[in-house]
Amino acid sequence: MKKILLAAAALILLAGCTQKSEMDKYIDTLMGKMTLEQKIGQLNLHSAGGFISALKVTEEDANVKLLREGGLGGVYGGSNVEYHRQLQAIALESGAGIPLIFGLDVIHGHETVFPIPLALSTSWDPALVERATRVAAKEASATGVNWVFSPMVDIARDPRWGRIAEGAGEDPYLGGEMAKAYVHGYQGYDDNFDKDEVLACVKHYALYGAAEAGRDYNTVNLSRQEILNGYMRPYQQAAFAGAGSYMSSFNEFEGIPATMNTYLMDDLLRKAWGFKGFIVSDATAVMEEIAHGIGDLQEVSARSLKAGLDMDMNSDGFVGTLKKSLDEGKVSVKDIDRACRRILEAKYKLGLFEDPYRYLDPERADKEVYTAENKAIAREVARDCQVLLKNDGVLPLRKDARIAVVGPLADNHSAMAGCWAMSKHTSETVTILEGIRDAAQKVTYAKGSNLFLDKAMEETVLYGLMRTFRPDMPIPPVHTQSNAILIAEAVAKARQADVVVACVGETENMNGEGASRSDISIPDAQVELLKALKATGKPIVLVLTTGRPLTLNWEDANMDAILCTWSEGSEAGHAIADVLFGDANPSGKLTTTFPVSVGQLPLYYNHKNTGRPHPDYAPYRKFTSCYMDVINGPLYPFGYGLSYTTFDYSDVTLSANEMTAGGKVTASVTVTNTGSRDGKETVQLYIHDVYSTSTRPVKELRGFQKIELKAGESRKVDFELTAEDLKYYDHELQYVCEPGDYEIMIGPNSRDTKEPVILTVK
Ligand code: BGC
């Protein structure tokens, strides 16, 4: 048997090599025929001219002109088969006749919209994420897209940063598991792309989520040791999973913009992790290196190429200056060839040389996109991406109750779709009101409030994007009704109801790119509504739409239940109603800490101890590491989330208390569903290195399992630990498992772990 397996492995390896050498030969021949300009053209990526789905090609189109001159390798931002077919035809008849690659921001689904990535991560279920991503890949590929700008795997510890919505939260281990799931969902498990598999683009490489003070695009100031231990794992795992491309980020690291950072792109990604694909810049990131203070467009383009960047998105730096830099000896033919080859390899793997129209089948979209089946999957997925933060017993609701649904996010389609949804079907996204109405009979509705009390702020939030691109365009009026009138209407409805469902939080444009906030509370106008509702004495369920953790102290103290539903996508309202009425039992757990105050930020569970540690929930004490005016601990910790049932954890046991460097130990707990409903629970394992040569976090996630238990059922959950699980990057940046004692902790979240047991590594 072993021999057969070995022979099979050898054959696979051989097939891989043969394939590789065929690809090499093909590309050698092709590049042998290409002019320098055509090679540089491959390094150029242009936007299709906005995020449009219905475009027509004309000879005036800048992309067409460039294509005819052989100066374009790819186009992004469109998802229109007809438009892409026309461009492809021009590409094939121009220059070296090389097919274009078509990219798009398919971030949380495509035409069928899935929960935003932060929400997806709260499922703690990589298989579920892979399933969602598979649907996105099928839909993208059916609409002319073969390259998706996802996954976004930036670790973020500061919810002031709006793009925290786009990632998997604050933990590098969980982020790594999610990164792999996305890559496999998009690309499958090998280098041979089926025509419903697309090339992933891991972003934003690297460390974009560590922007100082949560201000978008801001400087990153971290040590190599810190990034290797706290931030890089998701990028690394995506490379190990075979991701075909990466996108460089806007920020700098160690004083060098990421887009020209040799350490990040070459030393780590390519040399240490073996990444073989190509790296594209973020949109205009090459050009932005001028503002970073590095040099003019020629200088920054040359340095970016030399550092390992292969494709320039929307700066025209490569296409406009590399020839000059070559003449002046600032770059070499080898540098250009290397980048060109990597892009051609991606096109080869996508099968574009065999059939340039492989992803441009006009028949597929109608049959495969936004189907009832895909929407059903979106609903199933969204059910598992909601976090029950509080429940005094009011949930689940009875379907025959009189329910007042109120709040500016109750009937808001785009807020349900989320920050990166560009679906043509956004207006069909099921709102919370619609979902509740489909499930219950006695439902009333009132908008209840504006978003903000300040009119200018409301305009900025709703129309800021439009104003950026079309400053002259008149914006629709806001605040057409005063907050007082809206509240009065909602209060009247609440008084007639048995229970109030208050739908508040952030609209889709309050998070995502360019949406940093210094105050991360529910906006004032909506809190006024909540206070007025509270005064009615009716039970209130707060349904929170948000793309980031918010400060919810008053809400936690005053609302009867809080269900965090993020932006759940196409089937949001149905999936939320499923949970509200108990047809689904909530099982999401936070992947980002919810702080008590914005002043605590950055606040994350895997922090280190100081020499004067202070317990998370203890009052102020002078000369310890704490605040005078706020506790150290979070309102809701990482890993936290309630269910309609309850789970009990036994003490943790180890199969042995000692482990040798090459050994294995099993850590176990028995989890019991002690309530009266079936439910899912994510069991989390954390470690703490008691003494180490460098300081280590107080807790680090090193394993998790999502299990399903029937009411009353118990199950033993085992985690196998090896030295690999205990390793970290030491002060010399060596990845080591140091001998000594490790605390092993298991529990339902990062705060409430069971008493640690000690594992000694010999
Ligand atoms: C964003 C990227 C995105 C790109 C293309 C940039 O502004 O940072 O995440 O993929 O635009 O749309």
Counting helices, strands and paired strands, the structural category is alpha/beta
- Amount of helix: 25-40%
Q: Order the strands across the largest sheet as they lie in space.
A: 9-6-5-4-3-2-1-10
Heterogens: beta-D-glucopyranose
Radius of gyration: 26 Å
pLDDT < 50 stretches: none
- How many DSSP helices? 23
For the biggest sheet, the summary is: 8 strands, parallel
Distance between the termini: 36 Å
What multimeric state do the chains show? single chain
Q: Judging from the principal axes of the Cα atoms, what is the shape?
A: globular
Percent in strands: 15-25%
Compute the number of strand runs.
Answer: 27
Mean pLDDT: 96
Can you give a write-up of this model?
33% of the residues lie in helices and 17% in strands. The chain is built from 23 helices and 27 strands. By secondary structure, it is of the alpha/beta class. The strands form 6 sheets. It has an 8-stranded parallel sheet with strand order 9-6-5-4-3-2-1-10. A 6-stranded mixed sheet has the order 11-16-15-14-12-13, with helices on both faces.
